[in-house]
Design brief:
The complex is a heterodimer.
Chain A lengths: L1 H22 L2 H9 L3
Chain B lengths: L7 H13 L4 H5 L29 H10 L11 H14 L2 H5 L2 H10 L10 H24 L3 H22 L7 E3 H17 L2 H18 L1 H17 L5 E2 L2 E2 L1 H21 L3 E3 L3 H17 L3 H5 L1 H14 L11 H19 L3 H5 L2 H7 L8 E4 L9 H5 L20 H5 L5 E4 L1
Antiparallel strand pairs in B: 1-4, 2-3, 5-6
Helix pairs in contact in B: 3-13, 4-18, 6-16, 7-8, 8-16, 9-10, 9-11, 9-12, 10-13, 11-12, 13-18, 15-16
Chain lengths: 37, 426
């Protein structure tokens, strides 16, 4: 039960972090770095 | 039991490698790099975004670039998306991306299949001579493209590699180091700092990273034989700098004193060792974290063997912008040397890079215990025959703990367990 709770928390936190990052425009920053040598 | 010709995770690795490196238009259109929308998307594994065939963004490269940005708001230095991606994947499948998608994992798995050692009998010498021939051809090819001397290439690249391979051919597959010494790691870092202080920052960082890895596995006491003369010579050469009341050779003596005291304290008195698999956390924190933050440069990428294989060497050979070959210098040669060492290590040890170096694997490993997808062991039917360990690409014993941090979730043990004691659960 405890493990499943940790999994749910991790999944929610991960999704929230990724969504926040996308909202803050981090994808375009990553694109800037990844498109140059 | 039906013997499978190809493991399911191998199919995943091949598909992953092709999908992550599928930009063949690079060669058709003579473009240096793909720069479309997919380059905004971080992939879940180590795969250099500087490679001409690369489609997505390497999460570790992006991580270092983001935390190293200067003059931006604090929240722009937080790799939100990368952390979120690691957390989501880790929560669902633990370290499975290492086993099922990672191209560098595939290269290491394939290299380990090369038969060397006494068990391979006559075939080992055929292998040895074949690799020797391929090596000579590679040196000739590189020499023709980047205008290095063939003799230097043979002497400094081919010969050391063949000497290592000869050792492996005679001794056979090797067991990797079991522990790393904190004293050895500190010696490497301090040696790097001394070079930064007396010579050049970039040389110091690169040397520090390499010596950190080597000395930590070699152990502090044995490292002193290299560190003491090297430290003293470095202190006598380079810029004329003072450190408080110390100058020139005095700095060297101070360095030697600190080095000896560090070893005596941490190895002699405190016996401070960690499992060798924990070394990848040092790479994550010190190289991909601290070094990238303070220098604003992705130091893990600069030395990454996957980057050399997928980006450094292909770009130098191809040189689509007519100027990359002119940039070849000491760092390129160091990268090639690291790649050669990792290639040799992968032939003799199961996935050495994944187990001891990869920072992405280090992050995923944290989630293995809590991930949704996991393995379950039936202790009553398990006979501890060791069949699981023999097929395991990272050489662990799933019957000790099927969900240990080092497991890459390839499930080869599940499919090869004679009494079917291991199963995949959610």
């Amino acid at each position: 039960m405890r493990r499943k709770l940790i999994f749910v928390l991790l999944a929610i936190c991960g999704t929230a972090l990724a969504a926040l990052g996308i909202g803050l425009g981090m994808l375009s920053i990553i694109h800037g770095f990844a498109s140059q040598i | 039991m039906v013997k499978r010709r190809i493991a399911p995770h191998r199919i995943g690795q091949i598909i992953g490698t092709v999908l992550l490196n599928g930009y063949i238009l690079a060669y058709l259109q003579n473009k240096v790099l793909y720069s479309g929308i997919l380059k905004s998307v971080p992939e879940p594994v180590l795969n250099c975004y500087g490679g001409p065939l690369s489609v997505f963004a390497c999460p570790l490269g992006s991580f270092q670039q983001i935390i190293g940005m200067k003059g931006v708001a604090w929240w722009q230095n937080v790799p939100w998306v990368i952390l979120g991606l690691f957390m989501i994947i880790g929560a669902f499948v633990g370290r499975a991306a290492c086993g099922w998608i990672c191209p560098f994992g595939l290269w290491q798995d394939l290299l380990y299949k090369i038969k060397i050692g006494p068990r391979a009998k006559l075939n080992r010498w055929v292998t040895f001579l074949t690799i020797a021939g391929i090596g000579i051809l590679t040196v000739i090819l590189l020499a023709a493209f980047i205008k290095i001397s063939i003799w230097k290439g043979l002497l400094f690249g081919w010969l050391p590699f063949m000497a290592l391979l000869l050792y492996g051919t005679i001794r056979g597959k090797l067991a990797p180091p079991q522990r790393f010494s904190v004293a050895g790691m500190l010696l490497g870092i301090v040696l790097g700092l001394l070079i930064i202080f007396k010579h050049e920052a970039s040389v110091g960082i690169a040397t520090g990273v390499v010596s950190m890895a080597v000395f930590s596995l070699l152990g502090g006491k044995r490292s002193l034989f290299i560190v003491i003369p090297a430290g003293f010579i470095i202190s006598l050469t380079g810029k004329s700098a003072t450190l408080g009341p110390f100058a020139g050779g005095e700095i060297g003596l101070l360095f030697i004193l600190i080095a000896v005291l560090t070893v005596l304290l941490l190895e002699g008195r405190l016996k401070l060792y960690f499992p060798a698999t924990a070394l990848k956390y040092a790479f994550l924190v010190i190289v991909a974290g601290v070094a990238a933050y303070f220098t604003a440069e992705p130091w893990f990428c600069k030395l990454c063997p996957q980057g050399t294989l997928e980006a450094g060497i292909p770009l130098v050979l191809w040189d689509p912008v007519q100027g990359l070959r002119a940039l070849v210098g000491w760092l390129f040669y160091l990268k090639v040397a690291i790649l050669l060492f990792v290639l040799w290590a992968s032939i003799t040890v199961k996935r050495p890079f994944c187990r001891m170096v990869c920072p992405i694997g280090a992050i995923y490993a944290l989630f293995n215990k809590a991930s949704m997808m996991r393995m379950q062991l039936n202790g009553q039917t398990c006979s501890k025959c060791g069949a699981c360990r023999r097929v395991c690409p990272v050489d662990i014993e799933p019957f000790q703990d099927p969900n240990q941090a080092e497991c890459i979730r390839c499930f080869e043990c599940v499919w090869n367990c004679p009494p079917k004691s291991l199963k995949i659960t959610l």
